[in-house]
Amino acid sequence: MMEVDMVETYRELSIPRQPEMNIGTAGHVDHGKTSIIQALTGIWTAVHSEELRRGITIKIGYADMPIYRFSDGESEIYWSRPYIDGQHGELVRVLSFIDCPGHESLMANMLSGAAVMDGAMLVIAANEPVPRPQTKEHATALELLGVDDVVVVQNKIDLVSKKEAYENYEAIKEFLSTTRFADAPIIPISSIHHVNLHYLVEALYKYIPKPDKDPSKPLLMYVIRSFDVNRPGTSYKEIVGGILGGAILEGMIKVGDEIEVSPGYIYKEGGRIRNQPLYAEVLSLNSGKLDLKEASPGGLIGVQTDLDPSLTKSDGMVGNIVGRPGTLPDVLYEVTLDVRLFKYVVGTNETIMVRPIQRGEAYRLNIGPATTLGIAIDVRGESVTFKLSRPVIADDGWKSAIAARYDNKWRLVGVGEVV
To answer: Vertex 208, ends 207 and 214: CA angle to 5°?
Structure first.
């Protein structure tokens, strides 16, 4: 049997091609999502100063990983490095990890990341009760946004006895039985000591299939990050345009293309919120450290544009949609949803009944990559119209997560579909 060299897991990977799919991380804060990605890829995705200070993921992080298949004639091993015992593996897939915050106050960021997930790792710690509030909330979010393919990771088995690990495993199975993920594989690992990581890589390959996306359709890209990469004091002659980070759901994008970014620039005029779509040229494309001439659906990409970087700094363009000029759905200042409320509020330790949608009440809506506040202005049974504090791009059939205020915190209470 081939031996996996765990020393290699400390080294950042070389990515041979553009990733074909996005795998999200979901689960309660402090259950080790970011450390798992580091163990698999060599990249620590929490890189912002506030994240490093607080020790939690605040913004959506990302890292790419190849999967290689090795065979000795009797068995197979799947691993993220190209060599085992001197044998070069067969490259079978490249994927992007989307590392989402687990803290309850950052649920809107997690939902933005979930909008571009093709599958997910639901991470549950072996040394804590099951389920924790945000474990339930993240599992529900994956369900309502249509992320069907999930691998469950039982992390931190090094912190418990064999008996405790098994009891925790049984608790995970019981929790999953109440969700759509009852048959999902559960992989026990230790991300810190690099135990069973190759089994996790194998499960990601076998249980989360590559999605079927159509590159021939009009371009549709969700923006979940945006950046100004210019350092303070940069000469005006050397300033580069703003960067849009996200995932292509359909279509292709090439260097030199003209794109529309919508809703674009949001501003107030005469006391009213207005928007101005932005138009830009694609100056370069990047996937991790790969420079691309063109990009297709799958994986996370960075699009350098000639936009004023003041617009893209500090995630200023998150929630926008990118497409060819004139091809995107309408910008909505009001949206009507076919609403399905849950029986109980998600994400609390207590059991709280969900109250009906009330006219005049504010709700947090996550539609595609966008987060906005919606005031219910018309309630007719399951059909609810919301006036939006920030306009969004949406089309018929798009899903929306709905959160309401309970004990001064936003809690998931239902799902809506744009009609």
So the answer is: 145
Token pair listed for 317: 């363009």
Q: How confident is the model at residue 12 (pLDDT cuts 50, 70, 90)?
A: low
Residue 5 clears pLDDT 70, i.e. is over it: no
pLDDT computed for residue 42 by the predictor: 86
**Which neighbouring-strand residues pair with 223?**
246
Q: What is the DSSP letter of 353?
A: B
Which domains does the chain carry? Answer: 6-207 (3.40.50.300), 220-323 (2.40.30.10), 331-418 (2.40.30.10)
Confidence of residue 116 (pLDDT cuts 50, 70, 90): confident
Give residue 237's region: left, alpha or beta (phi > 0; psi -120 to 50): alpha
CA distance 97 to 102: 15
pLDDT of amino acid 3: 64
Q: Which residues contact 213 (CB under 8 A, 6 or more apart)?
A: 248, 249, 250, 296, 297, 298
Contacts of 188 (CB under 8 A, 6+ apart): 126, 154, 157, 165, 169, 196
Q: Partners of 63 in the beta sheet?
A: 97
User: Within 13 A of 140's CA, how many CA atoms are on the CB side?
Assistant: 26
pTM score: 0.87
pLDDT digits (tens, 9 = 90+) for 226-277: 999 998 888 888 999 999 999 999 999 999 999 999 999 999 998 899 999 9
Q: What is the DSSP string of 14-64?
A: PP-S--SEEEEEEESTTSSHHHHHHHHHS-----SHHHHHHTS--S-EEEE
The sheet that has 61-71: what strands, in order across it? 76-79, 61-71, 90-99, 21-27, 119-125, 150-155, 186-188
pLDDT at 200: 97
